[in-house]
């Protein structure tokens, strides 16, 4: 193929991750409510492992289409993990919730840094090792797939969505240890009572709602300007 075609092909391989992210994030909310935070996160590891396998064996099979499919599945996984901060926040004690929520962004940046280092030609970015580099994204998914079943479900999800008060108490004790946690349970009950009187808006209804217009402008501007920082180019 010509140099222009090769450039187009690799540009498509890079950008299709975002398409997968859009597909994954569009179903993240439904899955987290339908199956629970923990099970939804477990399901999200399946496209991650599938994508890693496709990219890892692409050179052996002589197929660049496998890289494209692998990048798409990796994007789907990345989009579905939009509910990861939700789970992390819900299993954290109230006094540590803000700090714990920030760790998601910290480890996201750390992961990008580690990937950048591993991609150096002196490490895994060489001509012989690049399939291993592309397949390495499956390692965190494999670790989570093994470790996550030992974690309890989100206490607010059990109480608010499922109405399982005993399951909620058991999850809280497993997460925070034995002790008096009635205050946290009362806070979750207040949240449940508030949600009964709150209408969940669709994306279209949110855009049309004048009361949220300025908040929406602010979020769009912040999200758009983040793209100008250069991280996507890296």
UniProtKB/TrEMBL annotation:
<keyword id="KW-0472">Membrane</keyword>
<dbReference type="InterPro" id="IPR020846">
    <property type="entry name" value="MFS_dom"/>
</dbReference>
<dbReference type="GO" id="GO:0046323">
    <property type="term" value="P:D-glucose import"/>
</dbReference>
<dbReference type="InterPro" id="IPR036259">
    <property type="entry name" value="MFS_trans_sf"/>
</dbReference>
<feature type="transmembrane region" description="Helical">
    <location>
        <begin position="40"/>
        <end position="60"/>
    </location>
</feature>
<dbReference type="InterPro" id="IPR005828">
    <property type="entry name" value="MFS_sugar_transport-like"/>
</dbReference>
<feature type="transmembrane region" description="Helical">
    <location>
        <begin position="12"/>
        <end position="33"/>
    </location>
</feature>
<keyword id="KW-1133">Transmembrane helix</keyword>
<keyword id="KW-0812">Transmembrane</keyword>
<dbReference type="InterPro" id="IPR045263">
    <property type="entry name" value="GLUT"/>
</dbReference>
<dbReference type="GO" id="GO:0005886">
    <property type="term" value="C:plasma membrane"/>
</dbReference>
<feature type="transmembrane region" description="Helical">
    <location>
        <begin position="99"/>
        <end position="118"/>
    </location>
</feature>
<dbReference type="GO" id="GO:0070837">
    <property type="term" value="P:dehydroascorbic acid transport"/>
</dbReference>
<feature type="transmembrane region" description="Helical">
    <location>
        <begin position="130"/>
        <end position="151"/>
    </location>
</feature>
<dbReference type="GO" id="GO:0055056">
    <property type="term" value="F:D-glucose transmembrane transporter activity"/>
</dbReference>
<feature type="transmembrane region" description="Helical">
    <location>
        <begin position="66"/>
        <end position="87"/>
    </location>
</feature>
<feature type="domain" description="Major facilitator superfamily (MFS) profile">
    <location>
        <begin position="1"/>
        <end position="234"/>
    </location>
</feature>
<dbReference type="Pfam" id="PF00083">
    <property type="entry name" value="Sugar_tr"/>
</dbReference>
<protein>
    <submittedName>
        <fullName>GTR5 protein</fullName>
    </submittedName>
</protein>
């Amino acid at each position: 193929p010509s140099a222009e075609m090769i450039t187009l092909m690799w540009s498509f391989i890079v950008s299709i991750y975002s398409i997968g992210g859009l597909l994954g994030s569009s179903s993240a909310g439904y899955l987290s409510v339908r199956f629970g935070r923990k099970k939804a996160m477990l399901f999200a590891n399946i496209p991650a492992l599938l994508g890693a396998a496709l990219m890892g064996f692409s050179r052996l099979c002589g197929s660049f289409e496998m890289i494209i499919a692998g990048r798409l599945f990796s994007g789907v996984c990345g989009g579905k993990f939009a509910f990861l901060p939700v789970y992390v926040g819900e299993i954290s004690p109230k006094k540590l919730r803000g700090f714990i929520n920030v760790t998601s962004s910290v480890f996201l940046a750390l992961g990008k840094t580690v990937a950048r280092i591993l991609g150096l030609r002196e490490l895994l970015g060489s001509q012989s090792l690049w399939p291993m580099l592309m397949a390495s994204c499956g390692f965190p998914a494999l670790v989570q797939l093994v470790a996550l079943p030992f974690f309890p479900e989100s206490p607010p999800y059990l109480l608010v969505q499922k109405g399982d008060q005993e399951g909620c108490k058991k999850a809280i004790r497993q997460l925070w240890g034995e002790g008096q946690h009635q205050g946290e349970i009362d806070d979750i009950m207040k949240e449940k009572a508030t949600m009964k009187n709150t209408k969940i808006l669709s994306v279209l209804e949110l855009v049309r709602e004048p009361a949220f217009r300025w908040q929406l402008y602010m979020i769009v501007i912040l999200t758009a300007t983040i793209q100008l920082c250069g991280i996507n180019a890296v």
